[in-house]
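tool=predict chain=A
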Amino acid sequence: MATDLAMLLLGGLLWRAARGATLRVRVAAARLMAVTAAVRDHLSKGASVETLMGSSTDALKLVSSLTLFGHAAKQLHGAEGVAAYGALARADAEVLNAAERQGYGPCEYTISRLD
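tool=predict ok
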């Protein structure tokens, strides 16, 4: 469920960014941060990423999505200096580190498509 919401938000971010709606992009980014923080909080309390996401397939989707979002957040933070983007990048990294400790390492396919 979190991955589906994240993908919807990404689509919204790209659409709004193309239209120059900076305020809406920041609202969508805040929503993405809320979802990412919720996942991070559950994992920090010992939840299994697979159980949290509902299946191993959805756990892999989460890792792929957050690899993409984390990369975009780092890029935006560097370009615009918006603290929220830096916070999102750090939250993504925390979730990805927790997922890796549970056997869901970096998504090499997504990484190979960045930049």
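Helices lie at 2-18, 22-44, 49-53, 56-80, 83-101, 108-113. The chain has one domain: 2-113.
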